[in-house]
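User: Show me a protein chain along with its predicted structure.
Assistant: Here is one chain, sequence first, then structure tokens.
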Amino acid sequence: MSQTIGQTKLAYSRVWHHVDVGTDPRPLGRIATRIAVILMGKHKPIWDPSTDCGDYVVAVGCNDLHTTGKKRFKKKYYTHTTRPGSLKEITMDRLMAKWGGAEVLRRAVSGMLPKNRLRSKRLARLKTFEGPSHPYKENIVRISDGRPNISQMDEVKKAFAEVRVSK
């Protein structure tokens, strides 16, 4: 009998999720929280803090990022090179003008991920785009609300049918 019940390659397979930030009514923090959970893999039953079992996330429409209150003009991002007098600050509005809404979303998600050795690998699976087009259309399996449509795919139906026949 196997000691690793449920921890198979199929359980650790990565799924591509699609999030349309421009049409999503939720504010930046709510979207970033959901993306962080998907990147960590906490939505999976096999989740373990020390393993990297998260999925890919493609976020489109980041130029239409929605924030509440006056955060867009008052929130500041700080950078420091550890040299005296090198503290720099930039507001969210100027950051969006300079680097786009994708960088704002990336920084929000980065702050919500655990600060450990897996953080950079998880953040690399977040693909952000300003407009609605992206090169990952063929990889997308789940749409923004998290409902799976993988069960309707012919390959999955065929694989399940083969398993049922073999038993």
